[in-house]
Amino acid sequence: MKKLFYLIPLAIFASCSAPKYTAGINSKEENTLAGANSSTPSINQADESELTASIKAVPTLTEEARQEIKTAYLNMSKSERKELRQLLKKEVKSISQVNKKEMSVAAVQRSGIDHDLKLAAIFGAIGIVALLISGNAFYIIGAIALIIGAVFFIKWLIRQ
């Protein structure tokens, strides 16, 4: 029975120590392994002005497209411009509301485990370790920690 108590934490520690993401990507090795010839452009041969990266989804317009939009807007009548501005305001509001909802969901997902669930796991682990150590004081500490962990776990279950 004692072997089982030592085997379970060992399995948990072993599973937690495994790498979450593994990557061994090297573009030069891939090109040589895939048999790429010199006629295919690689990342190193790309023009730096063409390479852009961003974490935001911001549309980019060329200067020609900007001029076309500007001339089309200037050719509109006053009532058409007013209607266009109202439609744009509605669209911006709807997009911002969607973004706010996504941000709140992303904040919960980013944190991983809920706070009460984390506390339940911590107190539960403390309680189990204290019970495994043995001794009158540790039995009391372990029991109290397990009760506190159970309370946080029940709080988490109620909210689910």
Brief write-up:
By secondary structure, this protein is an all-alpha fold. It has helices spanning 2-16, 27-34, 63-74, 78-111, 115-133, 136-159.
Task: Describe this structure as you would to a colleague.
With 160 residues, this protein is mostly helical. Among the domains are: 63-93; 110-160. The chain is 70% helix and 0% strand. The protein contains 6 helices and no strands. α5 (115-133) packs antiparallel against α6 (136-159). The longest helix has 34 residues, at 78-111.
Chain-wise SSE layout:
Blueprint: H1 2-16, H2 27-34, H3 63-74, H4 78-111, H5 115-133, H6 136-159
Helix pairs in contact: 5-6
Q: How many distinct beta strands?
A: 0
Tell me the overall shape.
elongated
Could you tell me the strand content as a percent range?
A: under 5%
Largest sheet: none
Oligomer: single chain
Assign a percent range to the helix content.
Answer: over 70%
Alpha carbon gap, first and last residue: 34 Å
Looking at this protein, list some descriptive labels.
160 residues, mainly alpha, 0% strand
